[in-house]
Amino acid sequence: MKLPLLLAALLLTIAPNLRASAEDQSTAAINVVSFNIRLGSARDGENHWDKRKDFVVETVRELDPDLLGTQETLGFQRDYLSSKLPEYSVFGVGREDGREEGEMMAIYYRTERFEKLDGGHFWLSKTPNEPGSMSWNTACTRMVTWVKLKDHKNADRVFWFFNTHLDHKSEPARLEGARLIRRRVNEMAAGAPVVITGDFNAAEKSEPYQALFEQSGSVPLQDTWRVAQPNAQQNEGTFTNFSLKSRGEKRIDWIAISNGFRVQSAAIIEINRNGVTPSDHLPVQARLDFSKD
């Protein structure tokens, strides 16, 4: 490893039986990472952003994603990562005003590989086109950022990438937010491949999980981790509160895909320094390729 302080970098990396064989792989893999980086204004003491921001950058460099969906990203964090990761373009706005105020669901994509054809945002509320709008007793404003990308390494295939963060307190807000995402994906990307990253603040088999993955729609979705690892196991939790010793059991960070993609592998990334993680969430990763038409 290039970074000697990153210990146990890939925990539970899965290469499922459905991994395409060498002769089958006619498309270049897309390395997708979802990472809640913890807002930089939080009073986290020894884990404050200023003390771990370079560790976050090192983590991203170690994982080397083609697509990165971040959550809890404030404007100065977005800009810091962008300055340290110049090979990526970034797209994101503040959830409070649709400009710079509040947390962002920032999306980073590899500039040389992808061309951004379109992009936008919607809010998880009864008025999704209204910046800062809130519904369903949500504790915070919640939103989705999306881009429509052309992949130059895969014969200019076009796909959609959505990134979100569901509410941490209100169960109705999580459920209705997941339902709204499902509807918007069906409306916007019908017939095109889709990737969704996010911190969903909900466990597998929860109502938001069922709303996203188990309800029918024009764009059926799959949980990349569960495709790769069909049977639940220990150490699937993705929230750490900055310490592997405090790691929970719930897998609340997900990467979803439509039928237009195949899962080559999936991982929950246990990067740490002496048990201390770069954020209060572990990043999750999925390596994808396009399904053959």
Characterize the structure shown:
- The protein is of the alpha+beta class.
- It has a single domain, classed as Endonuclease/exonuclease/phosphatase (Deoxyribonuclease I, Chain A, 4-Layer Sandwich), CATH 3.60.10.10.
- It has 5 helices and 13 strands.
- The strands form 2 sheets. The chain has a 7-stranded mixed beta sheet with strand order 1-12-13-2-3-5-4.
- α3 runs parallel beside α4.
- The radius of gyration is 18 Å and the shape is globular.
- The N terminus is likely disordered.
Output the radius of gyration: 18 Å
Number of strands: 13
Shape: globular
* CATH superfamily membership: Endonuclease/exonuclease/phosphatase
Topology overview:
Elements: E1 11-14, E2 30-36, H1 49-63, E3 67-71, H2 75-84, E4 88-91, E5 107-110, E6 114-123, E7 143-151, E8 157-165, H3 171-189, E9 194-199, H4 207-213, E10 221-223, H5 224-228, E11 253-258, E12 261-268, E13 284-290
Parallel strand pairs: 2-3, 8-9
Antiparallel strand pairs: 1-12, 2-13, 3-5, 4-5, 6-7, 7-8, 9-11, 10-11, 12-13
Helix pairs in contact: 3-4
